[in-house]
Amino acid sequence: MRLKNKVAVVTGGGAGIGRAIAERFGREGASVVVAEIDAANGADAERCIRDAGGDAFFVQTDVSNEMQVKAMAQKALDRYGRVDVLCNNAAILLIDEETRAHELTNETWDRTMAVNLRGYWLCSKYVIPAMLRQGAGSIIHMASPTGILGFTRLTAYSTSKGGVVALMRAMAADYGPDNIRVNAIVPGTTDTPMNAVGLSDPKTRQHYIEVAPARRLAMPEDLAGIAVFLASEDSSYCVGGIFTVDGGLTAV
User: Fold this and answer.
1) How many other β-carbons are positioned within 10 Å of the β-carbon of residue 197?
2) Which of 157, 175, 208, 237 is flagged as catalytic?
3) pLDDT at 199 over 90
4) Among this protein's residues, is 208 annotated catalytic?
5) What is the pairing mode between strands 180-187 and 7-11?
């Protein structure tokens, strides 16, 4: 068990990539705090981790709400006394509202930034003090190819994910000397509930299969292994890295 005796917070841990990571963390011996806005999904993730022999604790959390994030971090500390890993994964893609910059509404921009970028910062803000006291920690930001390459009509989402990479770099530089490692994972197009609307069109689905050299979509479980690596001591010299798990999408 590579994460034995570690406490890990996974935001958006009730579905998709976050769910796969939370369950894998549990199997690797971590006590998992499932920070999830959807109560049913969060409770189900906690139950599944426990049924598999792990330890989990669900805290309903809107990562864009500072008071809820602060309360989540405190509940994690009250229960476990420490936080060793933070996986910032919770995100939204308002696909039906995304468009070019001059056509985008203020509401779509603000909501996307609030969850996808502010949420990462807020969760980090309230977990880092515990990591500083412990003298160690690992923070994993879930980024996206859209924050690295140009994708049409994904203005708000792409900008938020580009900001995630910048936030990771800044945090890595600031906290590396404190033995807090900050890195980013870049998933390819993944078959998750967040992408369900876009991938429901057969032509769109086939397009994303064909543009990746691996010639398939990612599944949530494809991201769990790299997350375990970055959460574990195996990655003790990984600071400020961008780890692509995209089937080769950003390589071509």
Assistant:
1) 12
2) 157
3) no
4) no
5) unpaired
